[in-house]
TrEMBL record:
This is Cyclase family protein. GO terms for molecular function: hydrolase activity. InterPro entries: KFase/CYL, KFase_sf. Its EC number is 3.5.-.-. Keywords: Hydrolase. It is an enzyme of class 3 (hydrolase). The keyword 4Fe-4S does not apply. Coiled coil: none annotated. It comes from Amycolatopsis rhabdoformis. It comes from the Bacteria.
Length: 323
């Protein structure tokens, strides 16, 4: 199979040639999610045959990971069930007896980006030459208010569309792709042809490299040292040509190192800034791959509802495939 390996100059030119700036108007907040129409959502509902729901997310736990970009998730318990049966417990002012009712609550702190949490990037997450998607200045993301435009709350109505799983690891006949390996458009086409699938405007394409299987067998990689498998930059024109609305990956999307020193994460940068592409990082696609193989289908209804957190540049997510 011939390999498509664009030069760095070609990748840099894609900021212009693949751009969706102005395509949906100067005030657009959704980017490629404009391609998910009411008809597209209705059609996606028709893909549900068995009613099987499969999560594509990792658990959020508070353990330390070797490549945490920020702090590990933190859970601060505000109230618990501990001590409720202690007869010597000091009661709150005004209470004369131990109440029968109690409850538990916590405060949670998360760093949504990086290599760990399953998360959806807002269009405010990436800048190129001081600009965000649709030409908005990067200065619209402020310390006081966060992202004042293109924040994750623009997606408060969620994403419901047709999803397609491209299982690159299974297609290659391996348990998982090695770090640094990128999946190119020829491989996408070969997988789709092998499974009699076509990609339609507004689809969500989920790419399995098998990293979840590797984690189960060997533990987490030190990604900054080893690199990671993922989408090769060569797929960007393919994604634009097919009008894909969202891509999701079981790594943090870009094959790394990308081979392009001037644009280290080209799928994120060209995809988000130029195309307005929705990018879903760090999925766990093992259960979905097993379910697709069991049922003999690689298309499904895809559902994702990010937190409507005003000003946020991303959101933890629990994407669902419903088959």
């Amino acid at each position: 199979m011939p390999e498509t390996v664009p030069t760095e100059d070609e990748v840099l030119a894609w900021f212009e040639s693949l751009s969706n700036w102005g395509r949906w108007g100067p005030a657009d907040q959704l980017g490629t999610l404009n391609l998910v129409t009411d008809e597209k959502r209705r059609a996606a509902a028709g893909l549900v045959r068995r009613g099987r729901a499969v999560s594509c997310a990792w658990d959020i736990d508070t353990s330390e990971h070797p490549d945490d970009a920020g702090t590990a998730p933190r859970r601060l318990m505000v109230t618990t069930g501990q001590g409720l049966a202690d007869p010597a417990r000091v009661l709150a002012p005004g209470q004369e007896s131990h109440p029968r009712h109690a409850g538990a609550a916590e405060q949670i702190s998360l760093y949504p980006h990086g290599f760990r949490l399953t998360h959806l990037d807002a269009l405010a997450h990436q800048f190129w030459d001081g600009r965000m998607y649709n030409g908005r200045p990067a200065e619209l993301v402020t310390a006081a208010q966060g992202a004042t435009e293109l924040d994750i709350s623009a997606l408060r109505h969620g994403i419901v569309t047709r999803g397609v799983l491209v299982d690159a690891a299974a297609h290659r006949g391996v348990d998982w792709l090695a770090p640094r390996e990128g999946v190119r458009p020829e491989e996408l086409d070969a997988f789709l042809e092998a499974h009699d699938l076509t990609v339609e405007p507004g689809d969500a394409i989920l790419l399995r490299t098998g990293y979840g299987a590797k984690v189960a067998a060997q533990g987490q990689d030190r990604i900054r040292e080893t690199g990671r498998a993922g989408w090769h930059a060569a797929c960007l024109p393919w994604l634009r040509e097919h009008d894909v609305a969202l891509i999701g990956t079981d790594t943090s999307t870009d094959a790394s190192p990308s081979g392009y020193p001037a644009v280290r994460n080209p799928v994120h940068l060209v995809g988000i800034v130029a195309m307005g592409l929705s990018v879903l990082d760090n999925c766990n696609l093992e259960a979905l791959a097993a379910t697709c193989a069991e049922l003999g289908t690689w298309e499904f209804q895809f559902v994702l509802a990010p937190l409507a957190f005003a000003g946020a540049t991303g959101s933890p997510a629990n994407p669902l495939a419903i088959l």
